[in-house]
Amino acid sequence: MSSLPRTLKQVSSFFERLPGIGEKSANRLAFYLLRMPEEDLKDFGGFVSRLKENTKRCRVCMNLTENDICSICDDTSRNKTRITIVEDVLDLLSMETGNIYDGLYHVLHGRIDPLNHIGPDEIEIESLIPRIIDENTDKLLVTEVILATNPDMEGEATAMYIRNRLQDINKNRDEKVLITRLGYGMPMGGNLEYADYMTLRKALENRRGF
C-alpha cells in the first residue's frame, strides 16, 4: 500500500471506508478506475460530485428522487389506498422487484434504536400521519397500512410504535385503517434443520390452510 502513488492510495483508502470493502477490494477498485478511459472516469467523477446536489427526498413518501415527487407517488396507476412502510430505500427497491406490489410507500430512513440514541423523532414517522388521516376533516385517506420493517429487535420495536400510533387514530371510529405486518417464516427451498427458533416461530404463527 505504501508503494502506491499518493492519489491512487487516497482513492483506495476512500473505497476502504465503504461498507463491506476490505483493503484488497479497495485496491482492485482503485486500479479499475485507473484503467478506465479518461472520458468515462470524468463522467464517473461528475456523477459522484453531483450525487447529493441532485438527490432529495420525495415530499410525499420520502423516497429518493431528483424531483419534488418521486415516480411511484406520481404514478396514477398505483393503488393510493395502501401504504407500505419500509426502513430505507433499498427495502423499497426489493419490494418493487417483480411487480408484486402496486400500492404506495413510506420510507422511514431508519428505525427506532435506543442503544444508538435513535428515537421516533429521528426517523420519518410524523410525516406519515398526515398521509393516513386528513387532520382538517378527520377523514381516513388510506384503507391499509402494511408494516414492512425488518424482523429484528429494532424493526419490531419500530413496527409496534407505528402500530400504536395508528391504533390511536382508529379509536372511536366506525371506519378504521387496517394495520398489517409482513408475514415471515420459512423461505422457499429452506430446510427446517437450519432454521433458527424465531424463523420457526414466525412460520408457525403465519401458517395457513392447505
Compose a concise summary of this entry.
By secondary structure, the protein is an alpha/beta fold.
Topology:
Layout: H1 6-16, H2 23-35, H3 38-49, E1 56-57, E2 64-65, E3 79-86, H4 89-96, E4 103-107, H5 129-132, E5 133-134, E6 139-140, E7 144-147, H6 153-170, E8 178-181, H7 197-205
Parallel strand pairs: 3-4, 3-7, 7-8
Antiparallel strand pairs: 1-2, 5-6
Pfam families: RecR_C (PF21175), RecR_HhH (PF21176), RecR_ZnF (PF02132), Toprim_4 (PF13662)
Protein name: Recombination protein RecR
Zinc finger (C4-type): 58-73
Q: Could you describe the 3D structure shown?
A:
It is a single chain. With 210 residues, this protein is an alpha/beta fold. The chain folds into two domains: 44 residues, Helicase, Ruva Protein, domain 3 (Orthogonal Bundle), CATH 1.10.8.420; 120 residues, Dna Topoisomerase Vi A Subunit, Chain: A, domain 2 (3-Layer(aba) Sandwich). Strands 4-3-7-8 form a four-stranded parallel sheet. Helix 1 crosses helix 2. The longest helix has 18 residues. The chain is globular and about 70 Å long. The mean pLDDT is 92.
Keywords:
7 helices; two-stranded antiparallel sheet; 2 domains; 36% helix; Dna Topoisomerase Vi A Subunit, Chain: A, domain 2; 210 residues; alpha/beta; Helicase, Ruva Protein, domain 3
User: What's the CATH C level of the largest domain?
Assistant: Alpha Beta
CATH topology of the largest domain: Dna Topoisomerase Vi A Subunit, Chain: A, domain 2
What form results from the Cα inertia axes? Answer: globular
Q: How many E strands?
A: 8
Function: May play a role in DNA repair. It seems to be involved in an RecBC-independent recombinational process of DNA repair. It may act with RecF and RecO.
Zinc finger (C4-type): 58-73
GO molecular function, one term: zinc ion binding
Protein name: Recombination protein RecR
